[in-house]
């Protein structure tokens, strides 16, 4: 079995299976419940066309959740809804912001390896939790997007 089929298999797992779709919001969900604050944190996104999108977030939300809840128009962003099955929520950060983010997991590294325009300060928005120390952060959306789910589908179709 090729490694390209693995994301499709992960999506097929029951939500209760460790590593399955239930991991959406992984640690951000717990932080959101425990934060107990409605304090707004400013977040800026630089879209593919250079447009600056500014919004607010609650502590504990993932950057993917911020984009979805605030209805920000970033084409194709978060296509897998945070299940770590694509790289469409790929974001690039300034080094000083990147250094403040939580640790990168092996699953995230695997998906980032499939992202276009990967940099040393790339992360997936579904895996980055907003904290008070990140107030005012700017995240840049890469010019191109890679969706590992589509790559896996192409691989399965060509093998038939």
What does this entry look like structurally?
The protein has 160 residues and is an alpha+beta fold. Helices cover 28% and strands 16% of the residues. The chain contains 6 helices and 5 strands; from the N terminus they run ααββαβααββα. It has a 5-stranded mixed sheet with strand order 2-1-5-3-4. Strand 1 and strand 2 (52-58) form a beta hairpin. The relative contact order is 0.21. GO terms for molecular function: 2 iron, 2 sulfur cluster binding; electron transfer activity; metal ion binding. It is found in: Mitochondrion matrix. This is Adrenodoxin-like. It comes from Geotrypetes seraphini (Gaboon caecilian).
SSE diagram, text form:
Elements (H helix, E strand, L loop, with lengths): L5 H7 L15 H8 L4 E7 L5 E7 L4 H7 L20 E4 L1 H4 L7 H7 L9 E3 L12 E4 L7 H11 L2
Parallel strand pairs: 1-5
Antiparallel strand pairs: 1-2, 3-4, 3-5
Overall geometry comes to globular
CATH H level of one domain: which superfamily?
Beta-grasp domain
Mean pLDDT: 79
Q: So, CATH architecture of one domain? A: Roll
Query: Fraction of residues in helices?
Result: 25-40%
The largest pleated sheet is described as: 5 strands, mixed
How many strands?
A: 5
The whole-angstrom Rg is 16 Å
Order of helices and strands: HHEEHEHHEEH
The fraction of residues in strands falls at 15-25%
Strand order of the largest sheet: 2-1-5-3-4
The first-level CATH class name of one domain: Alpha Beta
CATH topology of one domain: Ubiquitin-like (UB roll)
